[in-house]
Amino acid sequence: MLERMQILICGGTGCRGSHSKEIRAEFERVLHEMKLHNEVQLVTTGCFGLCDKGPVVVIYPDETFYSHVSVADVAEICEEHVLNGRVVSRLVIKDSVDKQKVKNFGELKFYAKQKRIALRNCGNINPLEIDEYIGRDGYFALGKVLTEMKPVEVVDWMKRSGLRGRGGGGFPTGQKWEFAAKSSDPIKYVICNADEGDPGAFMDRAVLEGDPHSVLEAMTICGYAIGAHQGYIYCRAEYPVAVERLNHAIAQAREYELLGRNIFGSGFDFDIEVRLGSGAFVCGEETALMASIEGFRGMPRLKPPFPAVKGLWGHPTNVNNVETFANVPVVYLKGPEWFKAIGTAKSSGTKVFALGGKIANTGLLEVPMGTTLREVIFDIGGGIPNKRKFKAVQTGGPSGGCITEKSLDTPIDFDNLIALGSMMGSGGMIVMDEDNCMVDVARFYLDFTVDESCGKCTPCREGTRRMLDILNKICRGDGTLEDLDQLESLGNMVRDTSLCGLGQTAPNPVLSTLKHFRDEYLAHVVDKVCPAGVCPNLTNYVITDKCIGCTKCAKNCPVGAISGSVKQKHKIDLEKCIRCGACKKTCPVNAISSKPEDWRAVVNG
Amino acid sequence: MKSLEDLKKLRDQVLKNIRMHCQIGGTRIQIGMGTCGIAAGARPVLNKFLEEINEHELKNVVVTQVGCMGECAFEPIVEIVNADGSSAIYCKVTERMVNEIVEEHLVAGKRLDRYLLSSVKR
């Protein structure tokens, strides 16, 4: 019997975390029981991008998009949808922009403004099947490059495409390839940097899990262009699914002779191995990464010599990021001019972002360069949940800075974000609303870099720790105005004197919050108040007149600090209160405030 | 895999299998699979469509099941939505008719007016 229906089940890490594996098993069981297993094909795919709505199940050819599916829902889907053709409306995804139920994939606003190049196959194909990748024109770019083009032309196409490194730096990829290609050393290497470490960033993971072959194909193209015969993928061990699928993909490619000796009969040999990192953030820096592959402690070294001259085991090496590689096959399939036409003049193509924090559609998206932050956050991301007000967005993770409301209409590209005091980074985007304390946010990122500093150079090792001490002091309520000045001068010093990118960018979150949210720092230091109600020592919860006396807060208070009778305004005993915020979260009418109304007036005199 | 030709062959073979979830646009064959449709024999009709489409190696065609269209007395009902958005609704479709519909409507591009709901129902 021929298949009449395909059920796509997301197998990305987000959805696996909410039992998509078990859901697939249940589908198999129920379909067997109903004797429909020959008519319906189950496909485990990569990430659809809407991680917040997971586990995601999409049914073709109807293009019905089910969200938050549980194992218990499977029988109903099979009975109603698969057998009787009736959509199970209670499970159909709701559009977070206009709250309407949407049936079709194509109708979702989340996808409407996106342009998927690096994620072209994520959520579409089964990443464990090389055939499906080939069905989507996979390995055709490699075939074309090996049989019709000279290495010099390959590099030239890459230069003309204007593709820039997606790992954060934005260095032109074609130029990088050219440096490595020019070296006369017979031994060269291609490295794929899959050591994605920014908190809240998971673009590379999604590509590796959803479309591993695109990276293998691109690395082979790069190898041909620069004259290398061995590639390494340096992936974090914390990505077990990605590692498993990469190894599976490599084995399949070898079986099809798309890796190995004499690929496409061209005489060109290339092979790829996966190397695991043990999760040190600094190993995302290319020289530290290479040290780690060689078996040494992952520490950056001085550049030059650049990796293109003296890299892995002393040989010329080209290092590109996962997302950069994922774009490469498309450049050769559609031509550099096609790629160049997308995006802005200086930043061509698209960029994948991982949206997180206070945002309705937590997940993964890909937009052309030049899209504004407002479009990304409000149109695609669905805006801030719970009717809160937008405060800032942190781009570039712990190396980036925050961008405020007034800059939201800036078109996103490498240069614009740097001009705003932040950076593109690898693509993590953390959205913050009025309930986030910016001092606390800066402290969070700095805490991360203090942990991850490799300790090689003093400004980064000691400087960031001193900065963290000061931030802790401010959050405790012991900060002084001198502390703010010292924080700023220390930040500038660490930025200017550190050896590698980690140290050079570590002060960014502090410096940018100091610049954009100085009044919040002043409130902490001068008025001893945390305006967002996050820092416990500086927060006093008050019940306002909005209270309807529902008693919910009193019931939820873990220390019994709230008193009051039904339908009467309640009161918090500040002596007993431990500032946990449980009452604020549970209040149905938003009557509990941690914001003293007059703090701004005090600060501004 | 020794040449681009091999790769092309494999791709065309695979395309058939993944067409359903990778195709955008094209012709849609919507088969009424409400209780009425199923009772009237929509399931064998649907399978026949899949078989025929495969046999004729038609690309850009997907077969999908839909709910009851409200004309239960005329089931099985099959609506063919062309790529340009125009559509034809065939009624009381039998397995025998499927072959004809595929060859005439889908392959030759000629609508089979005598099977249309609008002509049967008058």
Report Rg of chain B: 16 Å
Order of adjacent strands in the largest pleated sheet of chain B: 2-1-3-4
Helix content of chain B: 40-55%
Write down the oligomeric state: heterodimer
Helix percent of chain A reads 25-40%
Question: SSE order of chain B in H/E notation?
Answer: HEHHEEEHH
**Total number of helices of chain B:** 5
Round the Cα radius of gyration of chain A to an integer and report it: 26 Å
Q: Biggest sheet of chain B, in brief?
A: 4 strands, mixed
SS strand fraction of chain B: 15-25%
Weakly predicted, low-confidence segments of chain A: 599-605
Q: Biggest interface: chains and residue counts?
A: A-B, 35 and 32 residues
Mean pLDDT of chain B: 84
Structural class by sheet pairing and helices of chain A: alpha/beta
Percent of residues of chain A in beta strands? 5-15%
Largest sheet geometry of chain A: 5 strands, mixed
Written account of the structure:
The complex is a heterodimer of chains A (605) and B (122). In chain A, 39% of the residues lie in helices and 15% in strands. Chain A contains 25 helices and 18 strands. In chain A, α9 packs across α10. With 122 residues, chain B is of the alpha+beta class. Chain B has helices spanning 4-22, 35-40, 42-55, 95-108, 117-120, and strands spanning 27-32, 61-66, 78-81, 87-90. In chain B, α3 crosses α4. Chain A binds chain B through residues 1-6, 8, 39, 43, 58, 60-62, 84-87, 124-125, 131-132, 134-137, 139-140, 143-144, 147, 256-258, 264-265, and chain B through 1-4, 7, 10-11, 14-15, 17-18, 20-22, 28, 32-35, 37-38, 46-47, 50-51, 54, 62-67.
